[in-house]
């Protein structure tokens, strides 16, 4: 019989994000956050390319980016309600970590595998935050796909993009369970 890590398995079978809009302060300190980032850095990574990096947004940075959301929303002609909703995610957040997909040139590892690894780093960070007792939520939002926002707001390089923004804070409520997939429907067993 393999060694069973019951606590880890129970966590994975019951984990649930906490919607960003329900998070409040305080957010994690630098000391609290480092083990979570370290866990994210243990993400499977073909060829050890480290095709990701992390930007920790503390309150003043979140406020600056919230203002940039309004400016960019107006410049792009985005619906006012949509802009307000997007800005609220930044204004309301106690702390957020931008997981940046930062692909590396490689003859061996296709770009898509580096993208998958960046997505996996997002989940690893999200789960590390939840397992540490914080409320956390993986968001993207239209601003994170706007090149001007990426460049002026987050100082990303041209070849980089946002894989995800993980908001981390104190949870105020546990959301009800949401429907989960029917495993029989999406699993194929092949025995020959
Ligand atoms: C790449 C990615 C981007 C997402 N962006 C958003 C978003 O911008 N807004 C949102 O409400 N949910 C977004 N979600 C969904 C939530 O992170 C999450 O799926 C939902 O809260 C349920 O999570 P749970 O299965 O951990 O409970 C995104 C999910 C992924 C994987």
Description:
With 192 residues, this protein is of the alpha+beta class. Helix content is 44%, strand content 16%. It has seven helices and five strands; from the N terminus they run αβαβααβαβαβα. The protein has helices spanning 6-14, 30-40, 59-76, 80-92, 111-131, 147-154, 183-186, and strands at residues 23-24, 52-57, 96-101, 135-139, 161-171. Strands 1, 2, 3, 4 and 5 form a five-stranded antiparallel β-sheet that branches. The longest helix has 21 residues, at 111-131. The chain is globular and about 60 Å long.
Note poorly predicted spans.
none
Q: How would you describe the shape? A: globular
Distinct ligand kinds: flavin mononucleotide
The portion of residues assigned to helices is 40-55%
Number of strands: 5
Helix-strand topology string: HEHEHHEHEHEH
**What proportion of the residues form beta strands (DSSP E)?**
15-25%
Number of helices, counting only DSSP H or I runs of 4 residues or more:
7
Global Rg: 18 Å
What is the mean pLDDT? 98
Distance between the termini: 25 Å
Structural class: alpha+beta
For the largest beta-sheet, the strand count, sense and barrel status come to: 5 strands, antiparallel
């Amino acid at each position: 019989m393999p060694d069973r890590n019951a606590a880890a398995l129970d966590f994975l079978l019951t984990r649930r994000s906490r919607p960003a809009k329900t998070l409040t302060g305080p957010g994690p300190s630098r000391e609290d956050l480092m083990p979570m980032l370290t866990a994210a850095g243990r993400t499977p990574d073909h060829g050890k390319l480290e095709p990701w990096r992390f930007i920790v947004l503390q309150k003043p940075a979140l406020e600056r980016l919230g203002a940039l959301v309004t400016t960019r929303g107006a410049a792009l002609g985005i619906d006012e309600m949509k802009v307000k909703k997007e800005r609220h995610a930044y204004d309301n957040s106690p702390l957020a970590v931008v997981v940046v997909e930062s692909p590396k040139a490689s003859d061996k590892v296709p770009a898509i595998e580096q993208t998958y690894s960046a997505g996996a780093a997002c989940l690893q960070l999200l789960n590390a935050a939840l397992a540490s007792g914080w409320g956390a939520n993986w968001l993207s939002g239209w601003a994170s796909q706007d090149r001007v926002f990426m460049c002026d707001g987050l100082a990303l390089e041209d070849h980089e993009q946002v894989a995800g923004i993980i908001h981390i804070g104190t949870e105020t409520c546990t959301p009800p369970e949401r429907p989960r997939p029917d495993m029989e429907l999406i699993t194929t067993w092949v025995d020959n």
